[in-house]
Every structure is written in C-alpha cells, then in structure tokens.
Amino acid sequence: MTRRDETYAVSVPGASSFPCSQGDTLLRAALRAGVPAAYECNSGGCGTCKFVVEDGEVAVLQEEPAGLTARDRRKGKQLACQTVPLGDLTAQLLLNPQWPSGHARPRRFSGEVTAVRPLTHDLVEITIVTDRPADFLPGQFAMVGLDGVAGGPAHTERAYSMSNLANPEGIWQFQVKRVPDGAVSGRVTGLTRGAVVHLDGPYGNAHLQDTDRDIVCVAGGSGLAPMVSVARGLAVRPDASRRRLDFFYGGRACRDRCAQEFVAEISGALSQVRFVEVLSAADEDDWDGPRGYVHEALAAAGPAELADRDIYIAGPPPMTDAVVRMLVLEWRIPVEQIHYDRFF
Ligand code: FES
C-alpha cells in the first residue's frame, strides 16, 4: 500500500516497529530509528544483514549481491541493506544483542566540497562541509553519493570511511582511491571545490573502543582512512600521554606511501608510537625498508607485545582475512579485542 506521507511501518517480531521512508532500505530505516539491526558493510557484500520477509512486498537494489548465496536465495533470505520496502512490512530482522552505545543514528544530508588534496598518485583526500555537526565515532564510515550517476542507490553511492574526527563545524574528510572504471570513485576523485555531495551516515561497528588497552592499527591500501581516524581518536583522549600505538601499514610501491604523514601528526600526543611500513612490490632501487604484506609484518612483530591490545584492521578483504585468521587461530586473541568491518 502506497501512502501519501510515503512512510511505511516495519514490524520486527520481538522488537518494536519503526517507520521506513519510501525508497529507504530496510537496514538504514532500522538504524535511523535506533533499532539495533546486525550489519557490517551496508553495501551488499558481507551477508551479515540477511533476513526473511514474513509479510509484505519489497524491491531489491542488487539482483545478485555478493553477500547472498544461491542457497540463501533458495531459503528466501534477503539482505536488509539491499531491500527497499514497497509498503508495510513484517520482517525477521537479525538484531545485534551487543549493540554498542554511543552510535549516532545515521541521517541523510548534503555538503559542499571545500578542499581536494592529492595524497598519492591515486589517492585523494576530499573535505566536505555540512551545515550540521559531524557526529561519528573514529573508524566509522558514511555513504557518499553524487547526482548524475546512472542507476539507483547501489550504483550512485559508495561507502567511504572518515579519516578525521567528529567536530561541531560539520567537516567530513575522506580518502578516496581512484578505481579504474569506478562510476562513483572516478567521479569523487574528480570533484572540485564547490561540488555538492550527498552523505548518509554514520555507519560501522569497527570504531575506537572505550577501553584502557593500548592499540594496534593494521591498514592496507585504501583502509588507511579509518585507521588514521582511530589513531587520531586515541591521540585526543584525556589519557593519550599514557597510551601506546603500533601502526602497521601495507602498500604496493613507493608511490603509495602517505601513511607516515598521519602517524607523525599524532605521535607527539602519545607515550609511544611504532610505525611499521611494508611494501609488496617496491622497486629495488627506491625502497630499502621491509618488503611483503602487512599481515607478514604483524606476524614478524609477534604476539608477545601485542596480544593484550585492541587491534583495528581495515583494508582489502584478503588482507583482513589473513590478519584475523592469524589473530584468532594462532595468537588466540579474544574476539572482543579485534575490530573490523568486512567489505567485499
Ligand atoms: Fe548487508 Fe553487509 S550489511 S551485506
């Protein structure tokens, strides 16, 4: 049933019902209402938000998202982040019983690009200013959308992590990698001052935790932005001068290097900072530092000093998988100390 107010009622057995604006996804509507729906990527890749429609009609943003297997489809499962209710709905939405406190509810708003700064040959820092405070936790991400890109929301927006910290001035900073043929990333990296950008956020669970543990950041490729935000978040804590940070960064070649700038920026605020940078395909003549992959650098550091830390991970899925497998299976780190959002 379509209503004039273009809002539908979604009922979740065992939880309160919530409104869903026409065109919004089931997941985003739940999070906007404060319903602790389980999710990670908000982009159709991880499969965490699988659910079943009990009653009602829906449309999907992607026909065959990576997060849904053929078996899932045969069982009638769908992804809440890729499902748009077409009327009132009853859904067996998966809830997260350990929903963390302190998350701002995601909202949609627009902002203006105020600065574009090249960081490397294919990585650009974009600064966007909005007319409301930037409210998010270090390590979270937002959906960045542009007008004029063909297709629905699955094609016109992408998830990018903020590299800065929450602030009352409404400043959001992203590090965007130019992807060949990327409909959105190609446009985002080509933005100039004054361009209007649509934001929807914040999202993400792999944010800086409120614990006394020292931290380890493990970043690969475009996973640098959330790790920079987490490190910056640690550096402004009241007890920062007693906290230690170990920052591992893995890139391909010398032309990918920029992480050192951000780690240097915060190192004076912390008691101890170790920066380990490793390159997997550096030219022999250009680089005399360690070679290989970031999970190998972490393995070489060993668990003796790191096993009692909070460990944050962001980067390509194979890197994240390799690091998490080692931490859990070999180092036996408790899962509550390991923080990452899966993107595919
Ligand atoms: Fe829906 Fe990842 S949150 S697939």
From TrEMBL:
Residues 6-97 form the 2Fe-2S ferredoxin-type domain. Keywords: 2Fe-2S, Iron, Iron-sulfur, Metal-binding. PROSITE patterns: 2FE2S_FER_1 (PS00197), 2FE2S_FER_2 (PS51085), FAD_FR (PS51384). It comes from the Bacteria. Residues 106-209 form the FAD-binding FR-type domain. Its cofactor is FAD. The keyword Transcription regulation does not apply. Pfam families: FAD_binding_6 (PF00970), Fer2 (PF00111), NAD_binding_1 (PF00175). GO terms for molecular function: 2 iron, 2 sulfur cluster binding; oxidoreductase activity. PANTHER family: NADH OXIDOREDUCTASE HCR, PROTEIN RFBI. This is 2Fe-2S iron-sulfur cluster binding domain-containing protein. It comes from Nocardia coubleae.
